[in-house]
Amino acid sequence: METTSILLVFIVLGMVIAFSIGANDETFACIYGSKTLTLRELLILSTIFAVLGAVFFGRAVSETVGKNILYIKITTAIVITVLISTAFWLILSARLGIPISTTHTTIGVIVGLGIFLGGWDRGINWLIIIEMSIWWILSPIIGFIASFMAYKLIHKFIINKQNGFQDFQKSERIFSYILVITICLTALSRAGNECSKAIGIVVGIGDIEINLLLFLTGLSFAFGIVILGRYIIKSVSKITELMPSTAFAAEIPSTIILFIGTLRGIPLSGSHMLVASLVGIAKARHMPIEKRMWKILIVWILTFPVAAIMAIIFYLPISSFI
Questions:
Q1: Sign of the C-alpha dihedral computed for residues 122, 128, 134 and 140 taken in this order
Q2: What distance in Å separates the CA atoms of residue 241 and residue 265, rounded to the nearest whole number?
Q3: Range of the domain at 53
Q4: What is the secondary structure of 121-134 as a DSSP string?
Q5: pTM for the full model?
Q6: Mean pLDDT of successive 10-residue segments in the chain (322 residues)?
Q7: Using CA atoms, how far apart are residues 27 and 49, in angstroms rounded to an integer?
Q8: How many domains is the chain partitioned into structurally?
């Protein structure tokens, strides 16, 4: 294949992955569950901030994914394998309505190929993987604890001091405005973090115009949210009952962690943080958690090893063909 044709294939596959990531994006689940915005309104917002977030916040994470994980030389077969494997698992999960981790999928695929082609010692930069893993473990724990505490504080110092239903309505209206601002910041960080994973492995080749790639993946990410993401948004919004105040308590930990992680170039799982935060809210309110939660947890656990094995299976025919 000529260089131009190969690059075109990379771009198209990267856009497919960005679409599938958008299809798995549940950033707006809290605001939808709280009935602050309609589905149509939040889809318009998500489209705008998907493109802005990808372009202005996507460079650092894409360089981490593409240049810092693998020790082995990144070939055309590796890039195509990573892109196809990631897209396949994400689209399948989106259609099933299960919010999986794009981070675990992408990194799982890359690690599987690195071990298969270079071995445990020479294929993978394990220091980077360990740093990521610490963030992966801590971020949902922090999300759970922070949302739990945020709800308790809001309830103690604001909700419990209200007099009558009118005060309650006024308070919730104020929280709805704050929630919209918080969600917009989350959407910027989320798009920057997620879209970077779609084209990170392509960036590893070098001599690629990264801003153009980020813009195209941002558009594809937005299309994924609009076309398939509504299923995930509706699914996650049902984990627990939400109002603007409780939605804000669930959202604020993800907003802060994602923003910091994206600026530091660390691939994070927004899905894990948000769902953990929603569980924290449910526990703080002594509310039941939807039974589908166990199904989601099982898929989370399986994603990393399944992605690694799937990458090896895809790589064998792809490398033979190319």
A1: negative
A2: 33
A3: 3-321
A4: HHSB-HHHHHHHHH
A5: 0.76
A6: 69 82 80 86 88 84 73 83 84 69 83 89 85 83 89 87 85 91 88 77 68 86 86 77 86 85 78 81 78 70 87 90 77
A7: 11
A8: 1
